[in-house]
Design a protein that fits this description.
Layout lengths: L6 H17 L7 H17 L3 H18 L3 H4 L4 H14 L3 H22 L18
Helix pairs in contact: 1-3, 2-3, 2-5, 3-6, 5-6
């Protein structure tokens, strides 16, 4: 987690994680690292009170979702529901405008990912009928 008691120091640590996420922007070989980062960011959102630190964590989640795109469902399959619930909770409880804006960006990105996953026009459905034996 983030052990420094000063909000600016915690914010700098999260900014470092944001840079790390940008580094792995489209690299899908680092699933485990991205899951650890996501778990840490969710812990920050749940446990800290400073809105600037929470805002930086939400922005990191947004970058993570943007970087993974539609593969985010595969990479973050265990925590995608947790991310959505936490973002909705922040949107309902927080008063800081910057945090609300970053939360809306993350939720929009999550909605885009889910809509592309559920879009059937990209994956047309086919119906095939196989006859195993001829009628007599």
């Amino acid at each position: 987690m983030i052990y420094d008691e000063k909000p600016p120091s915690r914010w700098k640590i999260i900014e470092g994680r944001k840079a790390l996420i940008k580094y792995f922007y489209e690299d899908v070989e680092h699933y485990a690292l991205l899951r650890v980062i996501t778990t840490c960011l969710l812990g920050v959102l749940r446990s800290l009170d400073e809105s600037s630190v929470k805002s930086a964590a939400v922005l990191c989640i947004t970058y993570l979702l943007q970087g993974q795109g539609s593969s985010a469902l595969e990479v973050l399959k265990d925590s995608i529901g947790e991310i959505h619930r936490e973002l909705r909770r922040l949107l309902a409880t927080e008063k800081d405008n910057q945090l609300i804006m970053h939360t809306n960006l993350a939720l929009d990105e999550l909605d885009t990912i889910m809509k592309s996953f559920l879009d059937l026009s990209q994956q047309p459905m086919k119906k095939e009928i196989f006859i195993s034996s001829l009628p007599k």
